[in-house]
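Exercise 3.2. Students should predict the tertiary structure of the chain below and write it as structure tokens, then compare their answer with the key that follows.

Predict this chain's 3D structure.
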Amino acid sequence: MNLSSMLDDMMTTLRVKTSLLREAGFLGITLGVATRHGVVYLSGKIASYGDIAAAMEIARGVSGVRSVQNGCQLRHA
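Answer key:
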């Protein structure tokens, strides 16, 4: 991976994290976001399947994202 690709992935990760934080439903949720070659990987514990779907949809809408892989798990009460 060259420097340009690494910088692109870092910026994509930052844009996805920012987009997730802007959504009221995701405030306070710790979500891991990593990007490699434009593929975003989400991880962490989320309250519902709906929240997982919403997080994936938000990530898909970010410039530079080629696809989104879900590694999230449901948080048990």
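Discussion points: The chain has a mean pLDDT of 90. Residues 20 and 55 are 7 Å apart (CA to CA).
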